[in-house]
Amino acid sequence: MPDLSFIARNASFLFDGLLLSLTLTAAGVIGGLAVGIALVLVRLFTGVVGNCVVDAYVFVFRAIPLILVIFWFYFMVPLILGRPVGAWTSAIVAFTLFEGAYYSEILRAGLKSVRAGQMHAALAGGMNRAQALRYVIFPQAITAMIPIFLTQAIILFQDTSLVFVVSLHDFLTATTIIANRDGRLVETYASACLVYYLICLAATAGVDRLKRTFAR
Amino acid sequence: MNYQWNWSLLLDEPYAGWLLAGLGWTVALSVVGWVIALPLGTAIGIARTSSSRWLRVLSGFYVSVFRNIPLLLQMFVWFFVVPELLPDRLGLWFKRDLPNPEFWTAALALAFYTSGRLAELFRAGLQAVPRGQVMAADATGMSRPQALRHVIMPQALRIILPPLTSEFLSIVKNSSLALTIGVLELTAQSRQIENFTFHGFEAFGAATAFYMLVALILNLVMVSLRRTLTLPVAV
To answer: Which range, of A17-26, A34-43, B96-105, averages the lowest pLDDT?
Structure first.
């Protein structure tokens, strides 16, 4: 049995890291949803030009790696604001805009999954487009979208580990610090794997359950 | 905002060379990772739909391990932990004698991570082929491997072609994580140019353009593949 007491000694440091990972995930989900909703509204209400702009936005953010996005904002946000803002702010901006591209596509697919006849019927019933979306389309689309939102949040939780490149102390970065300081690479990394594995497995199981509930 | 643009510095030595070398490593990582991940992912995906309960459980565990641990952590494990666990001689060879250890470690990490995702994709594709096709193959006297090879797989591959290309784009993007263990791929090179010149816009812009080019090319390849592979009768 390997000696794991050094992990207990560092528990609060690791826990702070985990908290930071979860906070980043929450910020990314909330910010990403806001951006995603804004992008979909642009698509729905501004015609061809708006559609092209959103297409370009989504294409760029989905074509480049998240690390590059983090570098962009780590370097660019201070330049635009004219003062240093630190890794934390730039990471949140990066995650928000990056996730926004993915969330807008999920929203779009969800809205598309509602049959076209529903929209026609709502319009024929005298609703305007906004009302039809609000009262007819959206309530039907939401159950299709929620599980995919949550799955995306689990992916984001794993992706927050990439703030390692700007030296934010998330769970993975905290792990590497302890692994190097105490020279206990095998035990430390194995424990980190286990923590990520269990969290993501539990979350995935929760999402699956939710999906079955909706399907009923 | 006060910024001195200087796009031409990207054409100067050594920066142009750095970018091209970075692009080369990115492509090499992606291709090597893909060449390992595709057969592995296919095999695990088939095992996921196998009639043997043991195979299903084992392959399900494989997929869940590689999908529920962040790729960055997997990369560190391959780099720092695996050589410690190998038998002494092999571990030593890994750490000391293997040329470009960072590259091969990163490629392996990418390959196993991607194989887990491909396995799920293949499982979904195989299950999307209508059941009647399996029964018909059975009825004509084909064995299971024959049915898989000649009836099920050709249809499943057509179904999963679009997500399969986006998986390849994912491996290209994910290869950027190799910079954390010291592979100077495209993103690392652009970061290095930013460090040397303080021209982040140009450096990151060049890397962004290269990644977008890869995405565009993949898109074109997919569209034309789809056109040539579509069957005259709808599947």
So the answer is: B96-105
Residue B199 lies in a domain: yes
The chain A residues in contact with chain B (CB within 8 A) are 59-60, 62-68, 71-72, 75-76, 79-80, 82, 158-159, 161-162, 164-165, 172, 175-176, 179, 185-186, 189-190, 192-193, 196-197, 200-201, 204
Lowest mean pLDDT among A136-145, B32-41, B86-95: B86-95
ipTM score assigned to the predicted complex: 0.90
Closest Cβ opposite residue A71 in set B69, B84, B187 = B187
In a domain, B235, yes or no: no
Q: Which tokens go with A39?
A: 């992008």
pLDDT at residue number B195: 87
Residues in chain B with CB shorter than 8 Å from the CB of A68 are: 176, 187, 190, 204, 207-208, 211
CATH number at residue B23: 1.10.3720.10
How many independent structural domains does chain B possess?
1
Domains of chain A in start order, with CATH, are: 5-215 (1.10.3720.10)
